[in-house]
Write a structure and sequence with these properties.
single chain, 270 residues, alpha/beta, 8 helices, 42% helix, 14% strand
């Protein structure tokens, strides 16, 4: 019998203080998963964990810097000490910044090296490092599931977001590579997939989508025009695919990047 049940699965979420990943945490906890929220924003994840527990769920907040392997290892040890295993790793840490985004005020040639490195490292190495640490735990267990967060920009690079687009394309490539590597070298019961969210209107990308006077930017107008469903996605609309990929219903699914985009990636513009 096909099962989408994730009750009692131990789910580790990096970047759990963000809008998208905190939404995953709340929704998955309501379905009975045990949630470990990892982030550098200690107060934020502590508050989310408290809210989940007060609602009858099971969650812990674990401070973690995804670019420091010692920090990730300490977080992994804390999760295993609490729950005994790791069933799912969601690599949600990521982001962009204006200083790594081309604009009328900042040309590609003048982008600061440290800003480009920050975006590339956070999105790519911030996915690889946690997968190394938690993947070792899964290899020892003989089972597990990793879900990465790619992007529409991984398919066709978006204008201006040079480092972010490159990093997310690399995340998609890493997803395929690691799916093969884990299955062939450690266990076919360890699956690695990704989702590619379409356009969500969040605090992170607000500066790209909305003008200072509150009207839609030219970029925002193009996004809506290029999305057949004619709107931005909502964070909670990403969760169904995550639940599916975590569940036994996806037991023969590995190495895929699943778009959740309102049709954006399917539309030629004509």
């Amino acid at each position: 019998m096909v099962s989408f049940d994730i009750k009692d699965k131990v789910v580790v979420i990096t970047g759990a203080g963000g809008v998208l990943c905190s939404t995953m945490a709340y929704e998955m906890a309501q379905l009975g998963a045990k949630i470990a929220l990892l982030d550098i924003a200690e107060d934020r994840i502590a508050a989310i964990a408290d809210e989940i527990c007060q609602s009858g769920g099971d969650a812990i907040g674990v401070p973690c810097n995804v670019l420091e392997t010692e920090s990730i290892t300490a977080a992994k040890d804390a999760v295993v000490a609490r729950y005994g295993r790791v069933d799912v790793l969601i690599n949600g840490a990521g982001g962009n910044k204006p200083a790594a985004t081309a604009s009328p005020d900042l040309s590609f040639f003048d982008m600061p090296a440290d800003s480009l490195s920050w975006v590339l490292n956070l999105n790519l190495l911030g996915t690889i490092y946690p997968t190394q640490v938690f993947g070792r735990q899964m290899a020892e267990q003989g089972f597990g599931c990793v879900i990465n967060i790619s992007s529409m920009s991984a398919y066709t690079p978006l204008t201006n977001t040079v480092a972010y687009s490159a990093a997310k394309a690399a995340v998609s490539n890493f997803t395929s590579w690691m799916a093969t590597h884990f299955a062939q070298n450690y266990s076919p019961e360890i699956r690695v997939n990704a989702i590619a969210p379409g356009f969500l209107h969040t605090q992170q990308n607000h500066y790209l989508l909305v003008n200072s006077d509150g009207t839609p930017s030219a970029r925002g107008q193009k996004i809506i025009a290029g999305t057949p469903m004619g709107r931005y996605g909502r964070p909670e609309e990403m969760v169904g695919a995550i639940v599916y990929l975590c569940s036994e219903a996806a037991s023969f699914v590995t190495g895929v990047v699943l778009p959740i985009d309102g049709g954006y990636n399917s539309y030629s513009g004509v």
